[in-house]
Amino acid sequence: MALVVQKYGGSSVSDARSIKRVAKRIAEAKRAGNDVVVVVSAMGDTTDELLELADEISPKPPQREMDILLTAGERISMSLLAMAIDKLGVKAKSFTGQQAGLLTDAVHGKARIVDVVPHRIRQTLSKGQVAIVAGFQGVSTSNDVTTLGRGGSDTTAVALAAGLDADVCEIYTDVDGIFSADPRIVPGARKIDKVTYEEMLELAASGAKVLALRAVEYARRYDVPVHVRSSFSGKTGTLVTGTHGDLIDPNASTGDQEEAMEDPIISGVAHDSSEAKITVVGVPDTLGQAARIFEVVAGAGANIDMIVQNVSVAATGRTDISFTLPHGDVRSTVAALNAVKSELKFDELQIDDEIGKVSLVGAGMKSHPGISARLFGALRDAGINIEMISTSEIRISVVTRADSLDDAVRAIHTAFGLDSSEGEAVVYAGTGR
Ligand code: ADP
Ligand code: ASP
Ligand code: MG
Question: What is the set of domains in the chain, with CATH numbers?
């Protein structure tokens, strides 16, 4: 008997029929003799709709109220799912994040889990019942309801799996696993059978939203094996674990090392259209300016991604500094920088909302020269201009115009020979929002 944590994303529970379908799957897992804990997201695009609704009321609503509002989405799906399972003759109980013991810090909108105390979940399991937990939410040390940031139900699932010492955390979604690129953009993307935490961290950090970044960080820290798969098919998905070699096939005679020799150079192409670019124009090129700018930016709570500083113009001794950050952080960052404009003595701020970022990720890249040249060549051949570049040992990212992003993803995918020969990847549901 195994203890399994299953997480169902919004597109897997978008209407009553889907909820009944998922309930059947859960009941089967329970009847097969497993202890089953289910984490569920809000139905379909409910979270986006609630965000839009709040925006109609106020452009800057109190964060505490936003969290209360957004957590309502998961309450709806968790209770409906419990009813659907109960109807199939299997006992199930639903719990909010607070009831399930997900304790977080008090940072509304992107709270971090500080402890998991799942007494009630354990009790429920010991009675032979299925426990359903609302994803994406917890309760803060000051007893307020919090949310964990977009995609946070993945994090709830992994945290519960770690806290309950589960055998596996299954992430059920609307595609058959993790692919070499988003199958919504690249129909010829290939399914990846196994990927390491490190590679998945880079993919998620680069925008592959199939798994939330925090969830991967958590899984790596607590060594939770994660299986990403479709709730619409019975296919085996993608295993995310510590190594390429320690995975499902218990009969395989090959050890880690032999398997590692077959590791692909590239694990995938990720894209991200959730960022904007701010350029601080005409910054005096003197000691400590960058430090001061980014202190101010950090003070505004922005998560900076890429940074480029140009060579200063000799005649003026001034330079431009550009950086990318999530769209949602632009307003507060611009306000914070403008507030210190006279102290920092820059000329102006330019804001560019129309950028996209494409990243090539793979642990094998570090030992293979010529990868950047091939990537840049692919974009040139596709007529796509590169605006910013950043690299790490296992990733190359470039910023393009937002409207060339999809073409850039496809061009790079093809240039690195990633296109599948096995037909098109299936996208079962969802709106890609
Ligand atoms: P859920 O509602 O189940 O949480 P998400 O929309 O958050 O689902 O994540 C699944 C989506 O992630 C897929 O439908 C796909 O469009 C997108 N995606 C982006 N990159 C990848 C990738 N490399 N592999 C698979 N899916 C990806
Ligand atoms: N419902 C939340 C969101 O849309 C959490 C999740 O689905 O993971 O971001
Ligand atoms: Mg998700």
Answer: 3-173 (3.40.1160.10), 247-433 (3.30.2130.10)
